[in-house]
Structure formats: C-alpha cells, structure tokens
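This protein record is not my work; I was only asked to verify it. Take the sequence as given and treat only the tokens as open to question. I have pasted the whole thing underneath without changing anything:
***
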Amino acid sequence: MMINEAFDFICSRVQEALEPQGFSKLNVSNAQNDEMVSLYANDAIAYSVIYYSDKQRMVLESCGMTDDGPDNDWKALATWMFDPETNDKKDANSIANDFVATVSAPVRQKAQRQQKRKKRDEDGNVDPVFMFKRLVTVIPELKEDIFNEEDCYDPFRSSTFAKTSVVPKVNNLLSSGNRQLITKLGAVLNAQYKNGDMDCRSIITIVILNGIEGEKNEKLMEEALDEMLLKAWKHAKRYRGKTVKPEKPKKPSKFQQLAAEQNNLNNSR
C-alpha cells in the first residue's frame, strides 16, 4: 500500500473523530523530507499524526495549546510500525482504529464518569468524591486538591486523597477551635455518612475521623456528630493503628504502554 494513501486514510479517520470535539485541521509544513505530518487542535490540546519514513513508524502525539499555537511539549500516545512494502489497508485500518480510540478516550471517560455520578445521585447513594466536594463548603482549600486529583488520576484515589488532603485540613480546623465551622463540618459528615455508599462511610470513619489527632480535637468533633455517626466511629476506632491494604495501582492502559514504548524508541535514536 502506498504510504501517501495509508497516511491520508489514517489522518482522515482521526479528523472525523476529532471534529465533533471542536478540533480543526491546521496547515503545517513537513519539517523534514523523511516525515509526513498532519496537525489538529482546539483551544486546549493539539494532536499530530506523524510518519517517520526512515524508521517506518506511524505515531500519534499530543501537546498543549497556547495563544501562539502548540507548546511543542509533545508526548507520544501511540506508535505503530508501517512498512509500505509489506503492510496493507487492513494494517492501516488497525492503526486508524487505535488512533481514533485514543483521541476519543477522554470524551468517553468523561461521559462515563458523568453517567455514573448521575446514577449515584439519583439513587441517593453518595460516593467519596461527592462527599469531598461537599466538604469544600467548609474547607475551601480542598477545591484545588480535588481538581488536581481528578486531573491526574482515574479512578479517583479516594482513600489516599482523604488521608493526604482531607485529614490534615480537618485537624487544622479542629485545632482552630472555630465552633461554627466545626458544627458545619459535623453537619456535612453526618449527611454524607447517612446517604453515602460503603466506600464513603468507610472513608469518613476509618480515614477521616480516625485521623483526628488529640483528645481535645476528638471531643470537639464528637460534639458536632449525630448519634448514628458517633456509634459508627466508636466501632471504627478498633482499626486505628492497623495497616490498611493500599489502593491497587491502576493497570497501565494500552495508551500508556504505547507511550512508554515510544519513549524507549526515542531514547534509542
């Protein structure tokens, strides 16, 4: 299959997937004779499809966008070998399918998270992330921490986030002695425990409440909790000081594996 035909076919498939997401094709000249490049961008992200004829590699890359154009901090998302002498239309279609799946993944994942969150809200089954966002009304500093966690990790590391971000701020609030805010904190925890799923309830009792330091702070917190949560916290105290099994690291996705392979290939050049 002629490389020009294969490249145009793959790029057209990628463009079809990106246009509904607000991307436009940008004019770009090939920097080198041994490269073919096609570039697509919206206000935030740029994607490029590149064929390196000397290496016979078809690569999908991405970087951020600035007011002046791509920031050129390109990261490889997927890499495929393509030899025009031996590969055919079927191989080009496989590459196109993978590239399309990669550029469509952020949209699909966002839709799945929104659908899952909507169902939970409708069922009255509050999850930990919903609870953390309610805590922002009492501890505004959590807002940026939540944004960073959602931006860097999927799924959200609820237990880790509660231990590293929520617990220290709860202790600071209790140490301040601000009874108005402490009462408000208790009201949020009471409501979220009552309506929360099992993960949410466990994080409230075993991580957040068990993470409170000092008898004085514990006393202040107890005064703000209702009978239901006080009883649950009493039972949860038996787990204090015990090692909790860490959250499983997320299995690397095909996208991450391919990106790692491309980094290795770049290092070997």
Remarks:
- The radius of gyration is 25 Å.
- Residues 89-123 form the longest helix (35 residues).
- Residues 174 and 217 are 6 Å apart (CA to CA).
- The longest strand covers residues 57-66.
